[in-house]
């Protein structure tokens, strides 16, 4: 995950198939997956049913700081929510923005989506912070 090595203690007595499968599932995806035509199929077929999209301009000077905070929040929800970055500058992501009824003037924004029932919520942000992302996710989970 994101060039960070994680190890599972195989010497432990409780290392069974279920634990190994869970470890692999939790660590097979990046903390944040960029949404584009290439990754779209993998995102939609993910075993995680909750998707949190950060819809933002990757060309913004604030983008690197936003991503640092977004990744930090993603660590807290690993294995529960799939964190996705949707670049508002990609023409292919215009459909995503319209699905969540967002205009470029409302970005950056967080959009959370539950795939089985298509329940969703959107939060426009002045600034991306770990606390705001966590609060938004926790509120939706409740």
Walk me through what this model shows.
This protein has 142 residues and is of the alpha/beta class. Helices cover 34% and strands 21% of the residues. It has a single domain, classed as Glutaredoxin. A five-stranded mixed sheet has the order 1-3-2-4-5, with helices on one face. Helix 3 (63-76) packs across helix 5. The radius of gyration is 16 Å and the shape is globular. The mean pLDDT is 88.
- Count of extended strands: 5
How far is the first residue's CA from the last residue's CA?
Answer: 27 Å
Rg over CA atoms: 16 Å
Name of the CATH architecture: 3-Layer(aba) Sandwich
| Largest sheet entry | 5 strands, mixed
Secondary-structure element order, N to C: HEHEHEHEEH
Fold-level CATH name: Glutaredoxin
CATH superfamily: Glutaredoxin
